[in-house]
Fold these 4 entries.
Entry 1:
Amino acid sequence: MAELHLKDLSPQRDPSLRFDLVVPSGGFIGLFGASGAGKTTLLHLIAGLEERGTGQVLIGGEDQTEWPAHRRGVTLLFQDHNLFEHMTVFANIALGITTGTPTPAEHVAVTRAIDQVGLTGLEDRLPHQLSGGQQGRVGLARCLMRRRGVLLLDEPFAALDPPLRYDMAHLLAALRQEHRMTVVVVSHDLAPLMAHADGAAPLQDGRLGAIMTWAQIAQDPRLASYGAGLTSQSAHFSAESPAMP
Amino acid sequence: MHRARASRPARSLSVHLMPGLIAAGVCACIAGVALMALLLAGTQGTRQGSIGQAGADWAALARIVRFTVIQAILSGLLAMGLAVGFGRALARRRFVGRRVVLALLPLPMITPLIVGGLGILSVYGQQGWLAGYLARALGEDVVFNIYGWPGILLAHGFFNTAFLTRLVVQAYGAVRPQTWAIARQLGIEGWQRFYRIEWPLIRTAVFSGGLLVVGLCLTSFVLILMFGGGPGKTTLEVAIYQSLRIDFAPARAGWLALLQLALCAVFVVLFLGLGGAIQEDAGNTAAQPFGLADGGLLGDGVWLVLGGWFALAPLLAVALSAAAAPWAWMIADPIFYQALLTSLAIGIAAGLCGLLIGGSLVWSACGDPRWGRFFDGVGTLWLVMPPLALSAGLFLALRAVGISPIGGGPAWGVAAVIGVNGLMAVPFVIRILRPPAGRIAKRYTPLTLSVGLRGWRRLWRVEAPLLRRPAALALALGIVFSLGDLGVMTLFGSPRLQTLPLYLYQLMAGYRIDQAMAVAGFLLLLSLAVFAAVFALIAGRYPRDGGAGYG
């Protein structure tokens, strides 16, 4: 578990974007905004996959701005292309723990992760032999294997049908508890997060707003499109999902 | 405000530059050495006045250059015309055997030039099928001289029509089916449809492919040597060969090679200026039934017969002639085995050399997109680099350091032949590997950076399995191209360094046509077998990428 702190972070290719954010250790927040607002760019900046112009990334109080992507204290579930299409489920997940051949202990750890995300029995399948939801779980399992303090997810619900979105959010919350991670989810659809996340921050006009509660989002007239979605999805969720506390 | 230092992603990607830079360095060294040797030989000749003896026959020189350019342009136009008619008919007709014809179209590409030339002789020569048929039909002997323009155009047409036809079929395959439906609805049919709808959609493929054919014909050597038929029908490449190996005039060879390089450089500029890049993955080769109701069946039938005959008849002729040739004689000849082993060794080494250099350039071009155009350019340049001019440069360079390229031992000749053939394979390696490697880089770079999969480990776990099939194709093509090479071997070949094409050429020069047919048939079979074996062995079971289309 680690605090995520962004200080005036800006990508080199678009200096008009500037991000300041503090997610407390163990926090679980959503990020939302219009298409092209820079949500994916933000996650890639945090993960060290986007060239930085200015600013700092602090994880667990440590300045990791100059660290290479694979050493940072974050792990990112991409919006798509999360899996190597020529590798099996097992090999894809094992990459989270080693880029070489797994040791017996690592083998056990991978098997356990597969079990945690409910993919037991599918270890030898190739990604194209899985459903969209199962593919997302493989990517999530690999993120968990990396044992980082901060988990970033880019539109994890985009490829899923509505019922599966709630299952995925529920799984995410359970894994977050078990692995004690700070979680940041970028999503157009905030409703699946409502039951589990602390709140969400809007990304508008190149700036990240403060983290808002669900009620604040629903009542803010500037965020009417998201608020309306939240209200309707919330009603749907309340009626159909017994998992909601 | 905290200013960033060099970003991590860029720094981690910079390791990708090294293989490409090394490969580009090797290319530059070989080209530089060859160019220096040509310049030295040329200027030495000027000082000694030999240019006055050999090169000052400006009228002859102008004739050679004019013929080189005109034969290339005419060959390109002939191939383009045939390919449009044949490709259009293939694209829009469904018929029994269509798939077989499409599968056979790449065959001329992997057929050794000298074997294809022999096939042309068997079909159109004085003793060939066509002359025989006409003699029977007319009841008297028909005098048909294949040497000169007819042979050159027919031979270039055979090798290039099939290649261009496939591009045309793919261009039609890339058109959305709705286009044809809209045309029908608007009543645009027949010639109007071709002119107003089809031609704008296929002309990029036709022109870019046609330009490439013109470039390849500018550096044509073997076919001109076979069909040139005298000083009036000589290209620069043949003139270089004659200067070095027949007239022993290095200075003249140097100047001619420099002239050939300049000509090719002008062509490259024109090629790039006219947008000569070939579209990758332009489309599939499935039939587009857009014209089944417009009554063009007879015309299409004529094109299919004509195109099929043009592209495939010479191969059939070689196969049939070889079947009746004296194979027992060939098997008993010890020179045959020496030539076979040398050909295989040189072919495999040159194929690997081409894959290594081309693969390194592709790796770096994909690893750092800012350098992409540079590495692509370094690799593609060899497409129009005249192999004989390059070989002449290396030949003269060896002489300049006191090594006789022929008498100094086969090792030098072998090294030069491997080097030149390897470099000549590089553009094809680039063309085959670049598109899938680019897609892999685009798709997986963030993921590999994220999990720390880098360098050799990334190459082994990501690129190697996903690029196995295209790499196998590139290697197989490189080996087969080198296996069929005669041009470079005519300079460096000697009684101690024989390859199968050179052996075949010597049999033909000695008018031992039956024996030559046996060797030609064997060489054709060997090329096909090596191509299939290398591809099958390396490509393995496929696809394992779930049809993601990397191959």
Entry 2:
Amino acid sequence: MTFAESEIKELSQLCTEVEVLTEGTLTFILLRGLQFQHKRELIKIDALICPQKHDGYPTRIFLDRKLEIDGTANWKVYQFLGSNWHSWSWNNIPKEQRLIQILADHLSPLMSQV
Amino acid sequence: MKERNSRQSFLGENSEQILEYIKVAVVGLGGGGSHIVQQLAHLGVMNFVLFDGDTFEESNINRLIGSQAGDIKNKTSKTEIARRLVTSINPDVKVTLIPNDWHEGHMELRECDFIFTCVDSYGERNQLERFSRRFLLPMIDIGMDVYKSESGYFISGQVVRTLPNEPCMWCLNVLNEENVSTEAQKYGAAGGKPQVVWSNGLLASAAVGLFVELVTPWNSIEHGTICLEYDGNKNSLTKSNLMSLPKVSQKICDHYSPLDVGDSFFLN
Amino acid sequence: MNTFLKIPTLLLETVKIDLSRPHPFAYERVGFLLCKQAVTSNSLGIFAYNYISIPDEEYVEDSTVGAMIGSKAMLRALGLAFNEGKRDVSIFHIHEHFGTGMPWFSRVDLKESIKFVPDFFNTAPNVPHGILVANEEHLAGQIWLSKEGAPQTINTITSVGIPYIISKQYEGA
């Protein structure tokens, strides 16, 4: 799986480092030091974008830790690339869009927390 | 050779040392894992890393080896039951207990030499196999199912041994997109599935046999990866037809790369 | 620090086939294993994933040692440790001795390795490097955790596959 340089460049403006990693049949885009607003706080977190089908989700993102989400979030822990990553139930974000849009759509429930 | 191992000297000259040295992880200490732990202790395995986040409940007593009536009232953890079981067989064993989800103890799991996975989820099997490939761990998985059809109840199960650089559970179709995705869409614990002691025992015994034939030289092995299927109605445990799949018989795995080993974030 | 190394048996077989090939003038062959790393709860783990053979023409004729490789081979090893800037690959020099039981390095092996292993840290300074020796039955190794540090014996080396072999170094070995 390859990605346009423009898409990687877009992502790199949101974090300190972007790296494409693979594990088996899965490709991830690692975002180191991704920053966004969560519960009125600017947080810095490592994230993985999984832009292909995983566990029945067309796309997914995984974070290096759980974050508080009001309501039922169903956080689950996964092991990828030798580390634990956390994701919550937020489905139906299609892969047929730019990576930055995939990221934004997945982060929207976190960023809307007050 | 110690007297306690004298009846298994046919396993090989160094088998005693191998079994004493090897560090074995058992993830899931329920109906299947408890049998495995018991047998490994009898065999002479001395180093255990045991994972289970659950507490014993009354519905477990029909199959959890080592459990006692008092465990119901005491709400004993499954890790504690397993520890009690192995130390009663051999007080000298070293046991590390992770009374938690295995992810909490993944640093301990990395250090093991072998992993038995006795979990009730395709998703967890998938993750554990991915982990075992990354940290070069031979893995043996067991699972059983009871399902109902119009003509009655059917018991089935499988024992799968997979090795790094050999076919995986995806190659064998034990894991596939359908079963992993379908399960993932059902939120919450799987729990409450029918389970019985004799099927678990048979599968666990086969699993331990596959372990011993790999780590000791007593038997000549053709395939590292092997899948055995259990038919509880026909009372048979046979090599799966999936072993004849071209990629499986040629020992090719195209789901995992041999280059993906170690901790990707070691330098961080 | 406790250390262990794991190598897939299929990879080890590839290594042994290569090392057993005769060379026009060198008494023995050498190669490089590429490895990744992981810290565990109590140890440092090394995981071998690839092997680099040295072509015949990259050996240097030297009758005082079993095998001497030239600068081209060494540069290639250093390039592999550099890994396109990631500098995350551990290099283990490997060769073979005849015999069974637990192998160990000759005095010449140990003397020479002190000269070249620290150079691997020039391109990959933050990962360990080392040397391995194999025979028909087992493997033994030494690991450098830093450029300046003294090498230490790898406690256990496991060949994972068929056959599955654990080579354990005991205290004082």
Entry 3:
Amino acid sequence: MNSADNYQFKHFPVFLVAIPMLLLLVLPVVSLIVASSPADLLEGVHHPLFMPALWLSTRTTLFSLAIVIVTGTPLSWWLAVSSSRWTRLVELFVALPIVLPPAVVGISLLYTFGRGGLFGAQLASINLQVPFTTAAVVLAQVVVSAPFYIQAAVAAFRRVDHDLLIVARTLGQSPTGTFFRVVVPLALPGLFGGAVISWARSLGEFGATLLFAGNLPGTTQTIPLAIYMTLESDVRVALVFALLLAGISVLLFLFLRLVPTIWSSYYTTNFLNVSRITGEE
Amino acid sequence: MRLGSFEVNVDFNGDNTPVVLIGPNGSGKTTLLRAIAGAYRPASGHISVGNQVLFDYKRRINLPLEERQMGYLPQGYGLFPNLNVIDNIAFGWLARKPRIAKNIRRRSALEILEKMECTYLATRYPSTLSGGEKQRVALARALMIDPQMLLLDEPMSGLDVLMRRLLRAYLAKHLADRARPAIVVMHDVRDVLAINARVYVMENGKFVQNGFVETLAERPATEFVAEFFDLGKSLR
């Protein structure tokens, strides 16, 4: 920032260390783009595995996201405001799927919902099979992606000024009213960011899905699993899938970066007519 | 009342006139205000305003915040950053039953702004307001619900000397006109002098002295009181 810093690092070849790392991050994506031709892409899109995988990925990840938001938001709020000693433990459990290898998550889900698992007997008695079904895909996605949303939501809720909640209550709002009218609008950028990361994680989910749901086209074959299968038979199709997923990921990333900035600038620049406010002519 | 390991133990009777609360940092002033507002539940005791009992440990009464009709202004004023000034002020009418239409809520809020000669602030957002403007908007918002009592936590903090002088007079006049109980936490002896109300001194969660400014200045009970009014002596 100032001249002293510049001088200190003037002779230090930072870029020599940085460039290989940057190349490693950027080159794979560049190679994907360079490797494909429009004709290959078109053929890949018409492959019989393409649309089923795209449709399955879309509906399962959106459904998982809905489950994560609906069940994760109250949990996050409790974690953010509660002074109970249980919050530490719960936060630990919530973070667990992030550090567990996806394959481990897959196997543990099998041992929970599979025939020989924890709920195996109960599920069999009501004739409900979970492994190797679309429900299994959703379950796996929820488990691996929920922690990202919850951690972001907890951080966002913690940032809301406690005094604002007290003021809202003194102005007549119930706890629920305060949550929806004050907390959520203020925490929204953080909640949104958490939702985007959570969705990106479930879109890319592979290991747990493969082991728990299997790789059945149309039923459990999401885009990452389709890449895996087509890599052995038709590389061009795998390439198309990979490019599609990469494209979506990049878009999500840009969305994540740009939306909060646009959001916060909206609050600071706002000029409306007073007459419009009161509804007068 | 216990808050973690901090205890506030007070016995306090006020009337329709404002009361000033002073004390060193960490003495429990904010805690007391929040407890009266209903944000903290005392471990024992009794809180009532007029004929209404807000809290009574023995009778297990604990009125929730939204039913206490307190006008609470926290330090920093607590304006909702996602709402413009009009919607901040009108916020208190959102919870009213039966529902009041948005344009009626906003019109009433505008009327309060007109009384304060601040209509030009109507469509601005809190982040664009100065300290003095925030104070007036926060006060307008509290008054919108016609509170039975005002709880002002350091309403003069964050203002420069000129703005303090202006708003000191404004606040003093407003509190004198209202004839409603109010507890105002203050840090500056000049603000206290302007209000001319009974002063309660709080230290370590207890009241150590109370009285009018003259009494406290002439016979300070603690070092804090002596130091606080020392400046006042040299000013008058």
Entry 4:
Amino acid sequence: MTNSPPTSPRRTPLTGVHENLHASLTDFAGWLMPLRYGSETAEHTAVRTAAGLFDLSHMGEFAVTGEGAAAALDYALTGEPSALKPGRARYTMICADDGGILDDLIVYRLADDDFLVVANAANSKAVGAELANRAAGRDAQVRDRTDDYALIAVQGPRAAAILDRLTDTDLTTVKYYASYPAHVAGRGVLLARTGYTGEDGFEIFAAPEDAEHLWDGLSEAGAADGLIPAGLAARDTLRLEAGMPLYGNELAADVTPFDAGLGRVVKLDKPGDFVGRRALTDRATATPQRQLIGLASLSRRVPRHGYPVMWNDEPSGTVTSGAPSPTLGVPIAMAYVRPDVAAAAAQSGTGTGTLAVDVRGRLEPARLVELPFYRRST
Amino acid sequence: MTVPGELYYTPEHEWVAISGSTASVGITDHAQRALGDVVFVSAPAAGSRVTAGEPCGEVESTKSVSDLYAPVDGEVTEVNPEIDDDPGLVNSDPYGAGWLFRVRLDDSDGEVPPGLLSAAEYAALTKEDQQEDGE
């Protein structure tokens, strides 16, 4: 984790809008971001049942361009961006030589020699430096474009219907993990069908000066459908229910994609070398030291980040993320446990042992739940 | 943010309503806003003794868990039965339906128990908090 800078947090093009909405603002990775506008549970539920509007302008954006851009990204990342068709996007990771995860990313291929890499705000600096480093001498340019984009997400089952009122683009042609240049509310944007909530939805990359116009347009267009602004608190419970990892919780520099159950993002069969190949090749076949599992609490006390997971009263792992789940109505958590414990816990219906979380000194029983906790029905 | 004038407060953001020898206790509007949606309250059991300044329970919200501190010395006589089913009352009505528990005061000499803050003192304290937050 990077240390937050001693300066006051940065504002997004929409911070003034959040202040007018009386949002509760928080310093998140050096940015002043809305934690919640009213009730985070109501915001969560709106995204599951209608739609939510998010300001994600704190995310880092990097343009990687040039004749060698595709090859440079194949070398820099675990995935194979050169295999993407223009207009498509992929979830991927950037790893260190030892296979440890430096960040998880979405790579959008905008054109043959034009890629947009979206990084977590907390890792943005490190990702930018690593990309520049790894692209050097490969006929590719890396530019930090974070300040050039406002990023607004509209997420939820009503998202497409709401957005449809503001654009001529036929949204039925915009596939999941695709992006297109489009006009929304009269402004030129990059429209992507991506998200971090477990719902259908869109992410809109726009010029900072258009952000307020787009926010207001989407708020208005979606009001009758139940769209409300949603903050980082709701975003966290939404992604947790959807079983999506968060850097700093499930993902870290001492975790490989295989530990996180995300070995599929490592394309060991792609041609050419890439950073971390040797270590990740070893990890792909080695027995993992830990396994990511889902837990549902049988108590009302909430397992939280860092709490020990107990198997037959022995410390056997650690909670990475936990929260009361608005959709399931019980506290849920993701945790790393020893693989033998994960296997034994899967059999625990037969009475082989008991799973619990040490919640501030008291063992609260939990049960193993298959990830994700929530999967949308359509 | 509201700070009713007739109540007493603690620096840990509990409020206390004194009526004869009984103190009703809850958390303040400032506290519920900072916590976000309350999902579970573990209050001290009726019949148990609490000591001013000591943790006597916890309040779980979406993002965090906080200790609940006893604002006074005494014996718990009653726990709000509604909170278990509807912990959101702490958010929607922190000074009313969201009360948490009642205590029979050890010293019911008509004096206000020591260490409690007046509404003005508490308002000043939370103002300082907000200024610090706003830096």
